[in-house]
Design a protein that fits this description.
This protein is α+β, with helices and mostly antiparallel strands. It is built from four helices and three strands, in the order βαβααβα. It folds into two domains: about 55 residues, no CATH class; about 60 residues, no CATH class. This is General stress protein 17M-like domain-containing protein.
């Protein structure tokens, strides 16, 4: 059975190194790449996935309004520039108006949403999925060569 580009398969291979952080695993792959190792045969696999939510602050009407206005202004800028591209005769005043209208609608919708959810969530946060460890896998026929490179030996 053939696999398409959207089929996700857990990579197979031999473990040549394990690390606590993704940065360390990435450095190991960089070291392999510098030694002219065929990096298409290398995978970094995260194990022990954890969901981490970092609280970034208290949410208030002011912060909600500011965030809504900012995201709405970006959307307004996009549509305003799109209008200028489609109709070059239009003035840049339209871009400014689109930014202001976008900011106003963004602020309004965010304040209404915050009002409805106020007692359930009064803080802002950033959600991440991180692994507790990272394993560098290599095709079995290249594993010894990879270990030599990572242990400071030669690449051959």
């Amino acid at each position: 059975m053939s696999r398409g580009p959207l089929d996700i398969v857990i990579p197979r291979g031999e473990t040549v190194a394990s690390f606590e952080t993704y940065g360390e695993a990435q450095k190991a792959v960089d070291l392999l790449a510098q030694a002219d190792f065929p990096v298409k045969q290398v995978s970094i696999v995260g194990d022990g996935l954890k969901s981490v939510e970092r609280v970034t602050g208290k949410l208030s009407y002011g912060r909600a309004a500011g965030a809504g206005a900012l995201s709405g202004a970006w959307l307004g800028l996009f549509f305003g520039l799109l209008l200028v591209i489609i109709n070059p005769a239009s003035d840049l005043v339209f871009v400014g108006a689109a930014i202001l209208i976008g900011a106003a609608f963004g602020m309004m919708f965010t304040i209404v949403s915050y009002s409805l959810n106020r007692r359930r969530r009064d803080f802002t946060s950033v959600m991440q999925v991180i692994a507790t460890s990272y394993t560098v896998l290599v095709a079995p026929d290249l594993a010894n060569r990879a270990r030599n490179v990572l242990n400071g030996g030669t690449s051959e």
